[in-house]
Design a protein that fits this description.
Enzyme class: oxidoreductase
Structural class: alpha/beta
CATH class: Alpha Beta
Number of helices: 10
Strand content: 15-25%
Family: Belongs to the LDH/MDH superfamily. MDH type 1 family.
EC number: 1.1.1.37
Shape: globular
GO molecular function: L-malate dehydrogenase (NAD+) activity
Strand order of the largest sheet: 3-2-1-4-5-6
Bound molecules: nicotinamide-adenine-dinucleotide, (2S)-2-hydroxybutanedioic acid
Number of domains: 1
CATH topology: L-2-Hydroxyisocaproate Dehydrogenase, Chain A, domain 2
InterPro entries: L-lactate/malate_DH, Lactate/malate_DH_C, Lactate/malate_DH_N, Lactate_DH/Glyco_Ohase_4_C, Malate_DH_AS, Malate_DH_type1, NAD(P)-bd_dom_sf
Number of strands: 11
Low-confidence stretches: none
Distance between the termini: 45 Å
Length: 331
């Protein structure tokens, strides 16, 4: 599927924080299957010994170890090259991602503080919501510790492009009667990871849509997370699709760190793309390289409809980022 890292020697150490959760478990499974990984540290407040024992029987190179509770956090992080953070509570119906801030901001801040101390050179992949705020929190924590490198911090927005491919392929198949493989449909998605901050650039796909289709697809991509939250009816949000998206991003990063060229993934990073609008973090396509972020791609041309969407991204994203920065800098 996406483990083109197959030909690499297993030499990357990965730690997953929140590894026993809804995302954590399938993400740990998919990460264990990645042959480029040598050590897989699974940290959570609960259940990691069992998850680790179970996964450790799979016959791939990664050595799996479980770490449970704050006393074992430093040991989980020791030697990590890549730290993935899905720790935090998910939404219930009726909640926005920002409603998770009060709980998740503190969780992410404390995990980031430990990472800044124990593995300051690791690449940090933030899944915990609200991503638009949790990524700035990690940046501030690393700055305070004097170890911030913006090339190594990523908000994982892969699920937005995974959804966009799926939804656009479905709509095109329906409209044309010709079966389209979703993985062949590439949609650039920019902005952030919540509601109106998610901006799919359908005009750049090279496909034709009616304005009605554009309206429906844009809305579905922006609010795809809500479909899952509603269907799970109180039992959480996307976990399995997120695990696939997170494992894909992790694999891409590892391939790039190992020298593979032209590895491009969308992600939410410290970015000059919307600096003119006063926005410090922004999601767009990024070429990954040996240091992490290599080249941040510009947005490219937007049509008039997308320009109006962009106007809506700016104030919301600015507010979300500011909230994270202020929280991280509270005493
Ligand atoms: N970025 C994205 O695209 C995306 C997609 C889906 C979900 N999410 C977010 O990911 C987060 C996790 O979702 P989930 O469905 O796995 O939730 P979950 O409740 O199933 O799992 C969360 C796990 O985090 C653990 N945890 C809580 N506090 C912790 C701490 N201090 N240290 C270590 N572990 C801790 C819990 O014990 C639990 O096992 C949520 O915030 C959700 O909104 C993001
Ligand atoms: O919708 C959510 O709350 C989880 C996640 O951000 C998603 O996009 O599925």
């Amino acid at each position: 599927m996406f483990f083109s890292a197959r030909l690499l020697a297993a030499k990357t150490n990965v730690a997953i924080l929140g590894a026993a959760g809804g995302i954590g478990q399938p993400l740990s499974l998919l990460t264990k299957l990645n042959p480029a990984i040598s050590n897989l540290a699974l940290y959570d407040l609960v259940n990691t010994p069992g998850v680790a024992a179970d996964l450790s029987h799979i016959n791939t190179p990664a050595k799996v170890k479980g770490y449970k509770g704050p006393d074992e956090l430093d040991a989980a992080l020791k030697g990590a090259d890549v730290v993935i953070i899905p720790a935090g509570v998910p939404r219930k119906p009726g909640m926005s991602r920002d409603d998770l801030f009060n709980t998740n901001a503190g969780i992410v801040k404390s995990l980031a503080s430990a990472a800044a101390r124990v593995c300051p050179d690791a690449h940090l992949l933030v899944i915990a919501n609200p991503v638009n705020s949790t990524v700035p929190i990690v940046a501030e924590v690393f700055k305070k510790a004097g170890v911030y490198n913006p090339k190594r911090l990523f908000g994982v927005t892969t699920l937005d492009v995974v959804r966009a491919s799926t939804f656009v392929a479905e709509a095109q198949t329906q409209a044309t009667g010709k079966a389209i493989d979703p993985s062949d449909v590439k949609v650039t998605v920019i902005g952030g990871h919540s509601g109106v901050t998610i901006l799919p650039i359908l005009s750049q796909t090279g496909l034709s849509f009616s304005q009605e289709e554009v309206d429906a697809l844009t809305h579905r991509i922006q609010f795809g997370g809500d479909e899952v939250v509603k269907a799970k009816d109180g039992a959480g949000s996307a976990t399995l699709s997120m695990a696939q998206a997170g494992a894909r991003f992790t694999d891409s990063l590892i391939r790039a760190l190992n020298g593979e060229k032209n590895v491009v993934e969308p992600c939410f990073v410290e970015s000059p793309v919307a600096a003119e609008q006063g926005i410090k973090f922004f999601a767009s396509n990024v070429t990954l390289g040996k240091e992490g972020v290599d080249t941040i791609h510009p947005i490219g041309k937007l049509n008039a409809f997308e320009e109006t969407l962009f106007e809506k991204v700016i104030p919301e994203l600015k507010k979300n980022i500011q909230k994270g920065v202020e929280f991280a800098n509270q005493a």
